[in-house]
Amino acid sequence: MTNAPLAILNARLIDPVAGSETRGGILLKDGAIAATGLFDLPADARTIDARGAVVAPGLIDVGVFAIDLPAFAAGGITRAALMPDQSPPLDEVALVQRAAAAGKPDLWVHPIAAATRGLAGAELAEIGLMRSGGAVAVATGRRRIADAGTMQRLLAYAGALGLPVIAHAEDEGLAGAAVATAGETATRLGLASAPAITEALAVARDLMLAEETGARLHFRQITTARALDLIRAARKRGLAVTCGISPAHLLLSDTAVTGFRTFARLSPPLRDERDRLACLAAVADGTIDMLCSAHDPQGPEAKRLPFADAEPGMAGAETLLTLSLNLVRDGHVSLPRLLALLSTAPATLIGLDPGSLAIGAPADLVLFDPDAPWVIRAEAMAAKAGNTPFDGLPVQGKVRHTIKGGTIVL
Amino acid sequence: MSDPAARANPLGDRPHPFPHRDLVSIYGLQPWEITGLLDEAEQWVEVNRGRTKHDERLRGLTLINAFFENSTRTLLSFEIAGKRLGADVVNMAVAQSSVKKGETLIDTAMTLNAMRADVIVIRHESSGAVQLIADKVDCPVLNAGDGRHEHPTQALLDALTIRRRKGRIEGLTVAICGDVLHSRVARSNILCLTALGAEVRVVAPPTLLPPAIEAMGVTPFTDFDEGIAGADVVMMLRLQRERMAGGFVPSPREYHMLHGLTPERLARAAPDALVMHPGPMNRGIEIASSVADDLQRSAITEQVEMGVAVRMACLDVLTRGRRGIEGW
């Protein structure tokens, strides 16, 4: 490792905070941005010729399930907020502190505290202590808290501490043992399914409780038209509610599970085409605040099973940016707006300074070529496991370098 | 209902090789492939009714029946079919508890493969499990029922039964009644009968009707009396009480009152309506004994008989390639 300044020249500099795009270079020194545009190149500086590629703040991925450094580096992710669903669950301050130190220096991990002890949904965990240990938010984990009383106390308590509550939106009674969204595909395949309103039901309850308590509420993944409508209405009433989505839910519908493809078994499950289109519209109109990878790599032991027995989840980190670029090409958002969805909004949610290209900002950057063609290959992924429903898909847009604290990690 | 032109065999009346290695589902079969299998099965009905029920065409081949889910009737049917064709038949009854995890399932598939089975018949409690195994082995695989997904030989034997009793399938109205939600038999039958030109209705309480079932080309009914009105075939399904944690129907007594096939209710169907049931029956719940045992109306024992013939036909057809028969 060297402390020599690093200069990236001949780049498209996109600053999502300023909403600006300029051409030129960027100089990184002592872990921070020292200059942009035209500057005098220090004699000891190393240089990278971007050859017209984009330089933007590093991506911030809220709600990953694994610390997977190679995958994050490959995806241009410089900070990740880790879900509490670990083994053991992040329900104690020592565990939170250990998780916070896990990725440095290449990646900063921001732990999300378990809302309840053991994520069991019954007793509140030591949220205040975990905040002192570095927790940036509180989450209910892979499941929601079924008991409305417990959820109400959680929102009140976390709200008073200034911590956002990240909720899983799925009514457990309606979902039952479902592994797919109710519809033609699930029926043809004979898969246990639940109607899409299982999400809206959970959202409706939690919005009411958030309104009562004044807490900040974030739904990690919202995937249905009806839930989005509830969130729009709540925003109009002034609620501090935000939501995210993964590119998989924007690009795939429930037909992707045809042939019992366990790589397409996700949580929440892939929805029908009408919901998918509603989600795209919600990204465009700003109802959906951020994109996340939902990175949850599952090895063959968990995926090479009959569909219903397989674990849900996908390796999403290294394809997050690539797949999201489809939103720009299809005209749903501009490139600066896309980068805001991938860095500024997640940073704001978890209380970080929004990533920008301002002088003095941390030198956490991604350098990517938005047009470079490649093919996603599950077996060639950097992730701990290559389970992706996009295996074999030709795509455009590739991360060339990920820079964390001024150091090139990819 | 599918277009009759689409159901025509592009080769006219000439038989043509069955172009599938496995029989995992009815989905994906062309109508002429289905009728081809039914025609093949016809000859075995006659053989099975004769004094000598033996044929040596599968001699030297090993048939493994791997049943991960309990079944007596289907296992016996495949065993008899295999033995009548001269195959070496091995039954592997795997206790459900010992093979719960799929990694073991794939291990099992690889073991079966290493033992050089020539054809494998599989039943499993999980939808899609048979396809998973079929992808891992080198020999033909027959699905004997996977979860709620499909049970193709049951649909073929039902179609054969209907065709023999009614002389045709095209244009008939078939009501599939009962626990459609949990039924692989219903799914395979819907695909098979609609492909052959029948009008299919599904009749069930709303809690046992799968979502979007009409997308499979059937008309759903929640009122039993309405659903079977004028039907040529009334196909009853077993109420799968073991899959009903959570209360899909209030009680067996109420189910029988509203959705059980009684002589009075059957009177609403066509006067010569055929009654079918894949078995085993819950007598007094989905079907009254007097209906089940009415030899004029009920084809239930004939279904069992057709089952052996259909399975012999499928084992024969799927192994022709391995037996070096030209063109297969």
UniProtKB/TrEMBL annotation, chain A:
Name the domain of life: Bacteria
| InterPro entries attached to this UniProt entry | Amidohydro-rel, DHOase, DHOase/Allantoinase_Hydrolase, Metal-dep_hydrolase_composite, Metal_Hydrolase
Q: Which UniProt keywords apply?
A: Pyrimidine biosynthesis
Statement: the UniProt record of this protein carries the keyword Magnesium? no
Q: Pinpoint the Amidohydrolase-related domain residues.
A: 134-409
On whether Coiled coil is a keyword of this UniProt record, the answer is: no
Please give the name of this protein.
Dihydroorotase
From TrEMBL, chain B:
Domain Aspartate/ornithine carbamoyltransferase Asp/Orn-binding stretches? 170-317
PROSITE patterns membership:
CARBAMOYLTRANSFERASE
Query: Which keywords appear in this protein's UniProt record, sorted alphabetically?
Result: Pyrimidine biosynthesis, Transferase
UniProt key word Transferase: yes
Where L-aspartate binds, per the record, is at K101, R184, R238
The record's annotation in SUPFAM superfamilies points to: Aspartate/ornithine carbamoyltransferase (SSF53671)
Q: Which domain of life is it from?
A: Bacteria
Q: Which residues bind carbamoyl phosphate?
A: R73, T74, R123, H151, Q154, G279, P280
Give GO terms: molecular function aspect only.
Answer: aspartate carbamoyltransferase activity
**To which pathway does this protein belong?**
Pyrimidine metabolism; UMP biosynthesis via de novo pathway; (S)-dihydroorotate from bicarbonate: step 2/3
Q: Its Enzyme Commission number?
A: 2.1.3.2
**What is catalysed by this protein?**
carbamoyl phosphate + L-aspartate = N-carbamoyl-L-aspartate + phosphate + H(+)
Q: Which Pfam families match?
A: OTCace, OTCace_N
This chain's function reads: Reversibly catalyzes the transfer of the carbamoyl group from carbamoyl phosphate (CP) to the N(epsilon) atom of ornithine (ORN) to produce L-citrulline. Catalyzes the condensation of carbamoyl phosphate and aspartate to form carbamoyl aspartate and inorganic phosphate, the committed step in the de novo pyrimidine nucleotide biosynthesis pathway.
The UniProt family comment states: Belongs to the aspartate/ornithine carbamoyltransferase superfamily. ATCase family.
Q: Which NCBIfam families match?
A: asp_carb_tr, PRK00856.1
UniProt subunit comment: Heterododecamer (2C3:3R2) of six catalytic PyrB chains organized as two trimers (C3), and six regulatory PyrI chains organized as three dimers (R2).
Q: What is this protein called?
A: Aspartate carbamoyltransferase
Gene that specifies this protein: pyrB
